[in-house]
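Quick review question:
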């Protein structure tokens, strides 16, 4: 039995994670962690240190919180030799490498910008296409309450496209932005324009548009329910028990 704590358990994603852990035959929900404590059928603590002081059986912390708190949550757990499965966006590769310095033997820090299998495949397909198309742009669509823009998935997609191709895009059109419309061509992430849409009606969607002479290719993934993340989250929880060190990306667990 894997003993799990869920940080951010009162949030939308956290509540879905709680339900998935409770439904898993091989997992036991030890506690939840959330500053907005709400009545629950399991112990809920206001902070990770408070939970660690009260519970000594936690094997894995699942963190879906906020960029402002996730790093401290990870540090506290790694210091206690607790594996971490992190879906909170806002951590850069440099942040993760720094946190990984605190990983002890037989302890794993796993981070994924996206836990949906479809999104992982979308990024892999985009990486494959990048070397054949001179231009690429990423457009991501999320609900208006998302706390970061661009999304972690969009940032990761852009970085993977940039790494896969043997040229630097000119990101055409930025030089034509009018004075009152600067930013219309999007944010540049390692030379790849990234556009963020925030609106009611969306959950999480992303498309990558590639262009070359006389043709375009669009790769799109849509997630309409947070339940789509849960197979990936549970896969990661089961995987970190037998791994150690820093692992980034669900694709590294899907082989």
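Suggested answer, residue by residue:
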């Amino acid at each position: 039995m894997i003993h799990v704590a869920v940080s951010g358990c009162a949030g939308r994603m956290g509540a879905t994670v709680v339900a998935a852990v409770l439904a898993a035959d091989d997992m036991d929900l030890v506690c939840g962690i959330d500053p907005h404590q709400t009545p629950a059928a399991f112990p809920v603590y206001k902070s990770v240190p408070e939970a660690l002081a009260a519970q000594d059986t936690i094997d894995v912390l699942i963190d879906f919180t906020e960029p402002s708190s996730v790093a401290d949550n990870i540090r506290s757990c790694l210091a206690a030799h607790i594996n971490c499965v992190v879906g909170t966006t806002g951590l850069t590769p440099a942040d993760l490498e720094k946190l990984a310095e605190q990983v002890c033997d037989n302890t794993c820090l796993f981070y994924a910008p996206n836990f949906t299998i479809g999104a992982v495949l979308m990024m892999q397909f985009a990486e494959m296409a990048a070397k054949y198309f001179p231009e690429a742009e990423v457009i991501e669509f999320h609900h208006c309450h998302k706390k970061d823009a661009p999304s972690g998935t969009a940032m990761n997609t852009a970085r993977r496209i940039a790494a896969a191709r043997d040229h630097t895009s000119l990101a055409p059109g930025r030089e034509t932005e009018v004075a009152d419309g600067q930013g219309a061509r999007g944010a540049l992430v390692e030379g790849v324009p990234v556009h963020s849409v925030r609106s009611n009606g969306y959950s999480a969607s992303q498309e990558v548009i590639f262009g070359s002479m006389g043709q375009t290719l669009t790769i799109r993934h849509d997630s309409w329910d947070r339940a789509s993340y849960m197979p990936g989250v549970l896969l990661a929880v089961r995987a970190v028990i037998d791994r150690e060190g820093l692992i980034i990306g669900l694709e590294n667990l899907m082989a």
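Why it works: The chain has a mean pLDDT of 93. The chain has two domains: 2-111+227-253, 117-223.
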